[in-house]
Amino acid sequence: MQVLFVLLLFLMIRIYLQYRSLILFSIVKKLCFSSVFITTSTVAVAVTNGTGTDYCINQGFKNTYYLLDYKDITAASVFFQEISLKNTSMESRLVIKKGTRARGITYFDDNNLTLLTAKKELIHVIDNNLPEFREDKEQIIFYDRTLLNESSKSFVVKNYNRKLTPFDKHPLFGRIKRKERPVLMELLSGIGISKLQSISGVININSDEEVKLITHFAIPYGAFTFSIFNLDDFGVPNTSFLLKFEMFSNEDNSLTVFEKESLNKLFCQVNKQFQISFPHAESSPWFGYAEYHKLASEILPSRTLFRKYPLLFSVGQIVCLSFIGFLFIYIVLGRYSRRDNFRKVSKSKVYL
Questions:
Q1: Taking the model in full, what pTM does it have?
Q2: DSSP per-residue string spanning 194-240
Q3: From CA 120, how far away is CA 289, in angstroms rounded?
Q4: From CA 21, how far away is CA 316, in angstroms rounded?
Q5: pLDDT at residue 32 is higher than 70
Q6: Residue range 29-50: average pLDDT?
Q7: Which residues contact 29 (CB under 8 A, 6 or more apart)?
């Protein structure tokens, strides 16, 4: 009986951990992605006053990312909804376009995590809610973040029906236009990856995001993004929340000097107001491969071992499931055996 109680307790804890994040995910998603626009003036006042932001304005705004604590999610989502251009000098010049997107991101690396060590990123991005014919539905990008001014190289995505070479079957190279593959191979060889076929997906991220694009004549120049994401990490349930303040380096820049300064001021002041409202929130100048890998390691400390030795993870699953199965059979047979013995004893008493 005690064994059965322990088993039930274990199952209840497992179900709670699995669905706790899903329940929280749905609540915050409804709150943050609702069509109701909160018009209180907290952030608008910050944009108007501009106190304590002189350094940011003079130096120029740098993209900032906040990984939110669970206790701050509701307040941060309300803060995000309040961001607007109302009562500012930019209200008549810039437009905020609101929308949602579902995005899948896969970071690729070799078994030794060479890209992670070299501070490079190789990512495959799919915007799931874009139509198939959109060219930017899928993107494959190589980032070099070791430079003072980070560099990136995008590759044309093309899914071939005919698989002519082994690389056509590769989960990453098979999606890149054949003529562009040598460029990526050279980049990877340059950081010491000789076995290109060993490149595989390391971290998979699924996110639902609400985006507020700052546009000028339909050209985006920045965005405020509230992202709710989870890591596909060996079946361990998880949900995290990321707030992004990003200004884009747009080559087609038709903004006047005043508009550029006002846009920079807008981001500086909204960011400063967020820091005042959430003084304990830790900011980061980038949130990419290294940050996701660190978060995944916190969720499952043994993930690196499991990824390097996937057979070990499979064997562990089989052992755990077998143990639970045998325990269940033992409990059922034990109850049946005791019931059968009771019947035999009852019958012998009747005959006596």
A1: 0.76
A2: --GGG-EEEEEEEEEEEEEEEEETTEEEEEEEEEEEEE--TT----E
A3: 8
A4: 24
A5: no
A6: 44
A7: 208, 228
